[in-house]
TrEMBL record:
Lineage: Bacteria, Bacillati, Bacillota, Bacilli, Bacillales
Residues spanning the signal sequence: none
HTH araC/xylS-type domain span: 197-294
Pfam families for this protein: HTH_18, Peripla_BP_2
Keywords on record: DNA-binding, Transcription, Transcription regulation
Domain Fe/B12 periplasmic-binding: 296-550
Protein name: Helix-turn-helix domain-containing protein
Amino acid sequence: MPEITEGSVVMRNSTPRSKPSGRALYLLSSVEKFREAGRWTLAARSTANCLLCYVVRGSGSIALDGSLCSFGPACMIVIPPGLSAEAEALDPEIEYYSVETEVVVLAPGASGWQVLPEGGPPQPFGLPCGMTRLREPGQALDDILRLYDGWQRGLEPPPALDLHLQALLARIIADAAKPDVEAQARRDRRTTAGSVELSIAYMHEHFHERIDRETLAELENLTPNAFCRSFKRATSLSPTDYLNRLRIEKAKQRLSPRSSVKEIAAACGFGSEYYFSRMFKKQVGLAPTLYIKRERLKVAVATFIGLESHLGSLGVEPIALFDCYKGPSMNETEHRRQLDARMNELRLAKPDLILVDYYHRSYTELLKTVAPTVSIGLHLDWKVTLTRIAELVGREAEAEQLIRVLEDKTSVARSRLSATLPRTSVTFMQITGDRVRIQGAVHHPLNELLYSELRLTPGSAVPRNRMRVELAPESFEGLQSDYLFINKFDHSAEVEHSFAQLRSTSEWHAIPAVRNSRAPFVNNWLIDSFTPPGRTRIIDQLVNLLDSRPNALS
């Protein structure tokens, strides 16, 4: 059982040691959230600290020192220090949290506890390395979210975070300590509902051959039906879907202008070129013939949230921009006229491919009359969108470099803002035709940038657990915020009237940011936060506050 001392976790080392026995002290080093998209792989690497990785979404496989196992949603992966880890995703999107802990090994000596030089135990937390099934994964996720929130926003001191870490470790230890005789018996016969490692390893080695479920079931000592159920529980995919995704990933690595689609299909285990092309387009979004030429395609975009900025940041200039989002102040006649004009421009441009964002998905069938289309889902993580687009246009290396540059820029800005504006509260407000929107602290890329990545303090009216709140101008109440960033949705008379109503209230003039001339107008950060150039502009504007104050609002 763990022993609590000064907000940390001290437990007896699970590995027998010479007396006096040693104990391991686990200290929180970092908590990060990752969303990966497209052809995601993790190259073989090792870490000096213990890692707990909790998978929220997606499935794939991970090899720890060459031992392969699958992972899926609600899985906890334990990676001891010094162990080589290599992973590959099978789903188009993977989301997971990584909790890194530093291990200090102590032993009682003549003058008290002393730090041992050999480092942490080979099996952290008393568990075998690799995937761990939790009895109550929802509770473990709650613990991780609390850690993540406290760590990223810097709102809790390290001892408090170590106490939250203790709760997570205690939960894992308790789950591992509970006896499960039936499960152990199944493991001995390799029939556990997560023991599909042999079949997965077989698929990776023989993906180019014909594989039937009877062969896979025999490897796991199960009947075919029981094997399919067990595989689905372990990976969230059927064996057929898992194998198809694996084969498509292998095909993507082999396709080139010099390759034959028919030969690639056969080399990756597809008996039919037609079936391969259908599965490829379903998973990737492009037909294999287009995927081969993706670096040379003429690309158009149908977007309201700046997909053209993603392309531009990757060095690709779209040949046409189709934006027919119907704003609240646009009537049907005006919208119809705009739609016809944009369609004519698109036909004249003759694109090879059209990228369609969430707000234009209703136009997909119409756009297909011009060129093949690929829908780019609405993701809250800009890196997911960028990586997805980069794969479609053959700019994966450029995307990786851009992500690194922006992450470094964000880190530098966070340090500078934290040192210069400690505990300074900020709020983003958007004025629409009949509403005042105050952005929350979660569930939007702008919110995540301001309050998680840059670790700024939310103003008093910023909802902590919602994307935003909307108020009528006349019902606006007090707001305590040192800085207030204001955006007008458009320049319509309705928006100007709403803002005039807001500024006429006594509550407006009581806002500290307004009184101190720190309430500037800004671009639509809600849209900018979805794109790399937009995020760069937001960060630059925030940092510029260190050098000058915005003009006052009367």
